[in-house]
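Chain A, query sequence.
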Amino acid sequence: MNSRSVKRSDRRLALSSVLAAIGAGLLASACCLGPLAAVLLGIGGAWASSFSALEPYRPLFAVVALGALGLAWYREVQRSRKPRCNCQTEPRPKTRRLMLGLGTVLVLGFLLAPSLIERTHPAAIAQQSQGQTVRQVVLTIKGMTCTACSRTISLALRRLDGVKSADVTFRPPRARVRYDTTKISVAAIVDAVRAIGYDASPQTGVLP
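Chain A, predicted structure.
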């Protein structure tokens, strides 16, 4: 195998490693980012629950992503120690490292997404409302896999017309919702949770 074929093989290996790292990183965060994206886009359905099935494999996807990323950087270090080729088809070292750096940021962003969602998305603050039409219901939530899921549900509930506040916790898996009975019902609130791939049922019924 001549030197040109070896360099072409190195480029393919480096590119494949970065793409594999990005793909694995995306899969590692899909269980949290998938439902959240559905809420932000205003779409839902039973398909959203399929993202939760990926949660048990998050550690595996994270290991694959970091391993592929490490391999890509290892190959780059090895290439930087070799004499530079003057052929025009060879990307400049700065260009290669820039692309590799962008891939690294993207992968780490995917892996840290659940924690970032938890920190940057504030929990709903309970609002005190006057009048006979405002009630409170406590729902038991099933299907949450991390704290980011509680933020997704909270966001979905607070976007409903008639919901005054929604405080969702991962442990215990519960949603405390204050709502206007003239605008929305408990059944509609439960349906909204189910529409983004989780299950919900009234825990204590409707409270004044």
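The beta strands are 134-142, 163-169, 174-180, 199-207. The CA atoms of residues 134 and 180 lie 5 Å apart.
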